[in-house]
Amino acid sequence: MSSPQNPSPTRWFKALRRPRTGDVCLKSGATACSEVLKRARAAFQAGRTVHDSFRLSQLEALVRMLMEHECDFVDTLCRDVQKPRFETVMSELMIVKNEALHAISNLKKWMEPQRIERNWATAFDECLVVNEPLGVVLIIGNWTSPLQLSLVPLVGAIAAGNCVIINPSEICTHTAELLHRLIPAYLDNECFHSVVGATHEIPEMVDLKFDHIFFSGSKEDGIKVAQAAARTLARVTLVLSGKNPCYVDKQCDINTTARRITWARFHNAGQSAVAPDYILCHAEAIENLLQALRCALQQFYGADPRESRSFGRIVNEDSFNKAKDQLWRSGKVMMGGQVNEMERYIAPTVLLEVLESDPIMQQDVFGPILPILTVQDADEAIAFINSREKPLCVYAYSSNNKLISKIMNETSSGSFCSNDSVLQSLMVGMPFGGVGASGMGSYHGHYSFDAFSHKKSCLLRTTRIECMTYLRYPPYEDRNLSLVTLASSLNLKSQGWCTIL
Questions:
Q1: Which residues are CB-contacts of 220 (< 8 A; sequence separation ≥ 6)?
Q2: pLDDT tens by residue, 24-74
Q3: Per-residue confidence (pLDDT) for residue 492, from 0 to 100
């Protein structure tokens, strides 16, 4: 199926206002969630998701959905955030398809019980760790990547054998509507559901007692989700936004550095939880970096980014006003800075003379704004990073490998990437998640399967060694304790761990 070309910039804003016929009625709120939760719980208890054949069929159907409706997803994201087709395919659809295909290829291996090494006390027994699905899980997506942040966790939840309720972001209305329409058309109608709840309704939905909650979003909303989940003892995975620092050293390929930072920061009009939030630039590199950033912006978006088909818009009025306020109350504009309220357009902007107390350094940035602070060396950058809450990502650009290792080892973050940005958050073979204020738990590939599984320890004992295990029974005698202690000490020397008989 051929894909349509991106609409011209002059038609983008009109597309947002265009009425649409035949829109489905979204199931919304905690009441609708409670109804489908009962159905999903019954389906799980009936064992519908147990077999690998069912899980594989659902993963294959998900891939088919993405392939057959690529044009629809491109259209809805264009209408929601005027996202260019290239960005939708590369950073949304392709990421989800890769995850699903990776899970399909490895599912049977992931599902196999893990056999644990035996010692002399369990020589006749079988020690296993069995991967057990958790039950019914709730996936709360985020508007910054409405497909990726809803469907990548879904892949892991399906692979692990769970039933799932997805809550896509209501901010991206058209994308949420499309998912709500397509999910029942491709996936099992009893096991997988889509319900849209507003941000203030999410704690009430979490209160319904799910077996696991996957949430991506702001720290403030993440705290509310964790508090609600604690009331029902539900497990949680939290991927939270924050301030991702990016150190630029005086020893680096400055042109490549500028291109990669420009792509990461201004991709999706700066609406990303994993993009660099601010640059800590070595004082000796600042002039060269500014010149290289100016060249990269010109190369990517032309003389007027507003007319570029490669640059999107802010998702809604609230986000636009917040980004505009950050722009006008922080630092000095070195390039960009133009604003068009009718189109919710903010030009790719670079700020200098930024203070740590400025709004742009105190709040999450979801707009095409890149503040730059100057530091004297890497030690000052490390001290600055460590003085703040642990970020989701830390980036460092330098040709000095020892310096890269120093920053990686002396800072703590959910992930780290040198000489590039964002890519570490997309790798199917690497875990991605936060730490501290940036979240808990991780996902992608096998790590998603583990996130939605319970590792059940199984010891399959024999009765043939009762002549040894009788030592643990009452009445307790010092002789028996001495024999148990001796056996444990011998086992510790030979095996490296102790076993009680």
A1: none
A2: 445 577 788 989 999 999 999 999 999 999 999 999 999 999 999 999 999
A3: 55
Q: How far is CA 313 from CA 82, 164, 265, 348, in A?
A: 6, 31, 14, 11
Is the separation of the CB atoms in 354 and 278 below 8 Å? yes
CA-to-CA separations, 373 to 160, 279, 381, in angstroms, rounded:
44, 6, 10
**Is pLDDT at 494 greater than 70 in this prediction?**
no
Query: What are the beta bridge partners of residue 370?
Result: 350
Q: Which token pair is 111? A: 């599902």
Cα angle: 440, vertex 443, 446; to 5 degrees: 135
pTM: 0.90
Q: How many CB atoms lie within 10 A of CB 383?
A: 13
Report residue 458: phi and psi, to 5°: -130, 120
Site of tokens 């489908």: 36
Closest CA to 181 of 40, 81, 73: 73
The whole-angstrom separation of Cα 23 and Cα 175 is: 12
| Cα-only R_g, the chain | 26
d(CA 336, CA 456): 55
Give the pLDDT confidence of 134-169 residue by residue, as tens digits.
999 999 999 999 999 999 999 999 999 999 999 999
Return d(Cα 76, Cα 88) in angstroms, integer: 10
pLDDT score, position 491 = 60
- Cα–Cα dist 94/431, whole Å: 18
Euclidean distance between CA atoms 57 and 161, whole angstroms: 12
pLDDT on residue 344: 95
Amino acid identity of 340? N
Among the listed residues 393, 397, 439, 391, the one whose alpha carbon sits nearest the alpha carbon of residue 418: 397
For 281-342, the DSSP string reads EEGGGHHHHHHHHHHHHHHHH-S-GGG-TT----SSHHHHHHHHHHHHTSSEEEE---EETT
- Phi first, then psi, for residue 380 (nearest 5°) are -65, -35
For 435, residues 6+ apart whose C-beta sits below 8 A from its C-beta are: 390, 412, 413, 414
Helix (H, G, I), strand (E, B) or coil at 483: helix
